[in-house]
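Per your request, structure below.
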C-alpha cells in the first residue's frame, strides 16, 4: 500500500506513520524514496488496537 492509501485508511498523517515506522510498529519497504506498507501489517495493527464502543 502506498503512504497515501494508508493515510486515507487510518486517518493518520505522514509524520505519524513515519514515527510508527521508526518504532518498528509498521512493516514497510522503501524504493526510490517512496514508502510502501505491508497491508497485513496495517490491518494487524488496527486489530491489535481495536476497542469496544461504550454504550
Amino acid at each position: 500500500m502506498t503512504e497515501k492509501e494508508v493515510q486515507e485508511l487510518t486517518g493518520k498523517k505522514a509524520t505519524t506513520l513515519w514515527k510508527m515506522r521508526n518504532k518498528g510498529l509498521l512493516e514497510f519497504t522503501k524504493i526510490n524514496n517512496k514508502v510502501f506498507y505491508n497491508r497485513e501489517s496495517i490491518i494487524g495493527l488496527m486489530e491489535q488496537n481495536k476497542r469496544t464502543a461504550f454504550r
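The mean pLDDT is 91.

Regards,
D.
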